[in-house]
Amino acid sequence: MNASPVAAPAATDLAQARPTIGVLALQGDVREHIAALAHCGAEPVLVRRASELAAVDALVLPGGESTAISKLLEVFELLEPLRARLRDGMPAFGSCAGMILLADEVLDTRPDANHLSGIDMTVRRNAFGRQVDSFEVDLDFAGLDDGPMRAVFIRAPWVERAGAGVEVLATVPDGPFAGRIVAVRQGNVVATSFHPEVTGDLRVHRMFVDLVRDA
After folding, report:
1. Is residue 4 part of a domain?
2. CA angle 169, 175, 180 (to 5 degrees)
3. CA–CA separation, 66 vs 102, rounded Å?
4. What CATH number is given to the structural domain containing 31?
5. Cβ(182)–Cβ(196) under 8 Å?
6. By residue range, what is the domain housing residue 124?
7. What's the total number of domains in the chain?
8. Greatest distance between any 2 Cα atoms in the chain
9. How would you class 49 by CB atoms within 10 Å of its CB: exposed for 0-12, middle for 13-18, buried for 19 or more?
């Protein structure tokens, strides 16, 4: 008796298993995010054009210099296409400068800086101080197992206001900044003040890849 042939997996099943996640490649920690996403089972691609943005399932906005990235979004004609995709529900993850870009409102920034309004929050730019004030701390991150995560803060923002629909995922546990909000989620959009891409701890990226698969 011949065995029944095994059907090949559908293209949609393969896409869900290995989603295509873009990394905004205008400035910042691009390579680190690419490596982390690949380790977590995604297909990472660089995004510099609107056509590339249109082809991805989700987008990571890396750490870097938020005002420079916001201006480059205009130069590369990505600002309005990115706003439109966020309005349409595209999953996104922003770290440090990416958090600033995703905010509804930004304090202590240039008046001509662009933002994307991906999360109902007010963010204070460089809230923890300048480069010399960079620090690391262990913090609990809601929904992640295996204990506290080491978080690296480099000229980092914090969240001054989180809207009613925004879930707070992490706060600074102690010290002079105790209680400051440093990770949030609203729907399919996640943002962190710190840089999970530089520590080797892949849990935030793994959570985001799973979120994209489920979206």
Report:
1. no
2. 30
3. 10
4. 3.40.50.880
5. no
6. 11-214
7. 1
8. 74
9. middle
Judge whether 196 and 151 are in contact, CB under 8 Å: yes
Which helix (H) or strand (E) is 146 found in, with range? none
Residues annotated catalytic, as ranges: 96, 195, 197
Q: Note the pLDDT of residue 8.
A: 43
Asked whether residue 85 is assigned to any structural domain, the reply reads: yes
Does residue 1 lie in a domain region? no
Q: What is the mean pLDDT of each run of 10 residues along the chain (215 residues)?
A: 45 69 96 97 98 98 92 96 98 97 94 92 89 80 95 94 98 94 98 95 98 96
pTM of the model: 0.90
pLDDT of residue 15: 54
Question: Is 31 inside a domain boundary?
Answer: yes
Q: For position 4, what pLDDT does the model report?
A: 45
Residue listed under structure tokens 């990472």: 44
DSSP string, 77-130: T-HHHHHHHHHTT--EEEETHHHHHHEEEEESS-TT------EEEEEETTTT-S
